[in-house]
Amino acid sequence: MTSAVDAVDTEDTIDVVVVGAGPTGLLLAGDLAAAGLSVTLVERRPRTAANLTRAFAVHARTLELLDARGLADALVSTGRRIDRVRPFGGMALSLQRLSTRYPFVLITPQYETEKLLERRALSTGVDIRYDCELIGLSQDRDTVTLDLRTANGTGTGTGTGTGTGTGTGTGTATSPHPGSGTRTTLHARHAIGADGVRSTVRTALGLPFPGQAVVRSMILADVRLTRPPEDLLAVNGNADAFGFLVPFGDGWYRAIGWHRDGRAQDTDPVGLDELRAILHTALGTDHGMHDPRWISRFHSDERQVPHYRSGRVFLAGDAAHVHSPAGGLGMNTGLQDAANLSWKLAAVLHGRTPDPEALLDSYHRERHPVGRLVLRISGALVRAVMATGPVRRTARSLGAAVLPRIGPARDRALGLVSGIGISYPPPPGTRRPAGRRAPDLALEPGPHGQRLYEALRSGGFVLVTPPGRATPPGAPLTHVHWRTGRRTTRSARARTARTACVLVRPDGYVAWSAPRATDAELTAAVAAWLLPAATPGRTAGPAQKA
């Protein structure tokens, strides 16, 4: 009997295959291709499939990472800025205290982020294959082998950038076109699973995804309002329900509602009247909600994979961690996973790092604790929303009223939620501020711009020194200088800071710094991260199973 699946085609070895064309996968693919690597991005969803987007908040640290790619301003133009929040009717919490170029939360649909990242990925040469599913994955010492099935008549594409990046949940997932299609085998030096909560890559690796469901029968919708709320953000929870409304800026509002008595399954029908009733209970009004463009019921889990790396395969975004939507942290955490991993993988594949295995292992070492922290933060927020009993609800209201008054606690909370306060352990032999986020330093105007995050658009390390310092010989980095002049040296502290030498990683974190450094010390610090010249074709050493 003749099979309906065509003969297997085998292609040449690719540097990296990314599975999942959501925001995390698109950023990874674009970064790796921009670094000169061959990249194929695989997405099971058809190119023309409608997107049910859940993410809508872009936090300050994510905007900084997009700024380092020249993308932030374009995304900011698509949405609304929220610069203060008033949790549970408490005092307003101002985001203007954040020390960043972006002291606000940007509210924009996830598809706007995806469209922007897809355009960049295509412009850098990424081979995007929609309607293409992963049906098998294996790896050995040198190569990852991926078996794919593509619907007939499809292949590489110039899609609309509206993918969700979700996987199929099993290692032998059911095809969207059962019994037909072209089967292809890809060989890659590395692979990344960014294919969502039901990650096929994670399942194929045999990695567990421990955790639990924390919120059931929550309703999401995009709606129009007859009577918009006075505050830009309307949010409240009481003994019976939780309601949330936020504008996209184009007349549409994202509405979220949850009722304590809700027992419906995700697949049960949902209507606008049910959401209206929930918001009326939580907010005192439904604000004249009407004309939903989509409405959906879902549940929320808290889960995290124990290992972000397994040999030559990595997990990122929702494939590695998932949590409640409280705080709008999910997409942001995934994009920051991508920014951490992409430069490390590029450095290894280009032979630019002294210790390839240690650098690849540092992805899990740095990002797994951040994922665990995000689970705790979002979990605390959602449990505050779901607080039962007068004592717990009173404690929640008291916390919302007191937090804005306690400076250190307020600033730490803002830093963690915005991502500005996230840091990594300093590398061995270094000390703080190594591992911390680098602020957008003012630089002497030159070909790489006038700010640090403009200089980071080169895609590599950036060395900031006082004027007149020589670039370490053969170092593949961008060398810039502190801005001089009265406006930037008004204080003794500022003048002292500008005698420092700072090496900044491609993801905008400090690799090394010293108040003053000799040429030999500067050369040694750079050599700890970068080989003096690239060795074409060099790759990581033996990849061990995690």
Can you give a write-up of this model?
The chain is α+β, with helices and mostly antiparallel strands. The chain is 28% helix and 25% strand. The protein has helices spanning 23-34, 60-67, 72-76, 110-123, 200-205, 272-283, 330-349, 356-385, 389-402, 407-418, 452-455, 492-497, 519-527, and strands spanning 9-10, 14-19, 39-42, 57-58, 80-82, 84-85, 93-94, 105-107, 127-129, 132-139, 144-150, 182-193, 211-225, 234-237, 241-247, 253-259, 289-304, 309-310, 313-315, 321-322, 442-446, 449-451, 462-465, 478-481, 501-504, 510-514. Helix 1 (23-34) packs parallel to helix 4 (110-123). It is globular, with a radius of gyration of 24 Å.
Quick summary:
With 546 residues, this protein is of the alpha+beta class. The chain contains 13 helices and 26 strands.
Largest sheet: 9 strands, mixed
Distance between the termini: 42 Å
Report the β-strand fraction as a percent range: 15-25%
Mean pLDDT: 85
Helix content: 25-40%
Unreliable sequence segments: 1-6, 154-179, 486-496, 534-546
Layout of secondary structure:
Blueprint: E1 9-10, E2 14-19, H1 23-34, E3 39-42, E4 57-58, H2 60-67, H3 72-76, E5 80-82, E6 84-85, E7 93-94, E8 105-107, H4 110-123, E9 127-129, E10 132-139, E11 144-150, E12 182-193, H5 200-205, E13 211-225, E14 234-237, E15 241-247, E16 253-259, H6 272-283, E17 289-304, E18 309-310, E19 313-315, E20 321-322, H7 330-349, H8 356-385, H9 389-402, H10 407-418, E21 442-446, E22 449-451, H11 452-455, E23 462-465, E24 478-481, H12 492-497, E25 501-504, E26 510-514, H13 519-527
Parallel strand pairs: 1-12, 2-3, 2-12, 3-9, 12-19, 23-24
Antiparallel strand pairs: 4-8, 5-8, 6-7, 10-11, 11-12, 13-16, 13-17, 14-15, 15-16, 17-20, 18-19, 21-22, 23-25, 25-26
Helix pairs in contact: 1-4, 1-7, 7-8
